[in-house]
Amino acid sequence: MKNNLIALSNERRSPILTRLGVVLDNSVTPGSVPSIDIPQIHGSVCLANDSLLRETEYVEELTTFAISYDGMVGNRLRVLRDFIAPARESNSRIVRLTTYDESEPFQSVDYTKVKRSALADFARVEQRVASKADLQVPNRGLTLMLDRDQIKDKPEWQQLHTKWLLDLMMRATIQEALVLLSTAATQAATVWDAASNPDMELKQDVITTANMTGFYPTCALYGDQAALKRQNAYESQLTAGSIMRAGQYSEEQIATALQVDKVLVNAERYIGNTAATTKTEFVGSNVYLFTAEDESVMDASNIVRHVANAAYGGGDYAVYINEHGPKLISLTVENYEYLHTQHTSGVLQIAVN
User: Fold this and answer.
1) Which helix (H) or strand (E) holds 143?
2) What backbone torsions phi and psi does residue 276 show, to the nearest 5 degrees?
3) What is the pTM of this model?
4) What is the rounded CA–CA span in Å between residue 287 and residue 247?
5) Domains of the chain
6) pLDDT in tens, 233-250
């Protein structure tokens, strides 16, 4: 699978985003655009300009909408994003990370050494080793330039365009998370056909992964094509057991078969370039095994998403509106987000053929 990472840089023109149909331009300032050029500016996406954000207050109603949209249960982009990289919330942009030796929790001692002799001390063990590092959560955002004449008959233009910018930012986050997951993963390939048992094959991969980490991975992420190949492999065998397995294609049923906490079959797509006539799956014919869980003291998640409050009243996102002369309006969505690979072991990427 080829992932197209969206790099949000400060270049005037980013070639990757341009191929996706997103034109970056943060040079638009009040009075800098002649009225004759306004139709060409309408609908262009820009990098969020920090100097412009300082000139205005965020829009509370739109910010609330953005936060609620991000949290919607039916928002499959959010589901996919949080499945791969669960959020770690902070009130500060500075996050302290503590890294432990991943083998230490599984060390053992000779059982005879835990028995104390009369008048003797208990046997001593070395203190656990840890390293600490501070990181600053970067500010991310996109700005949309709009022409008043183009939106005057659209009463819900603010919510509509806020949702679109949020979707762009979420797709960028998903693509970045998949790149990090793939980079950390042990690569493997398999063929699922009439001679295969896909569930038992992945169950063996779960056990092999546990031998590396000390515990089962908690998540299995299937691309649509991989899930279809699993079903086709069982249906083509025409045995009672295979037909039963073929019918067990819900995410909960597959999770039970693999003995992992949760399974997600990818349903989301993106356009790789402006000339594309079809949408591209995020996961495709791959299956990922990894760990992602809610925040805890002993956090074994492979990829996490550190987020800091963007809105003054709390929340991951903030929305701003600026006026640029009589005709131009800019709408900006921002957040503070950092994707971090905190454990590189225990990730497996299987390419299914």
Assistant:
1) strand 139-147
2) -70, 140
3) 0.78
4) 19
5) 15-105+125-352 (3.90.1690.10)
6) 988 887 777 777 777 778
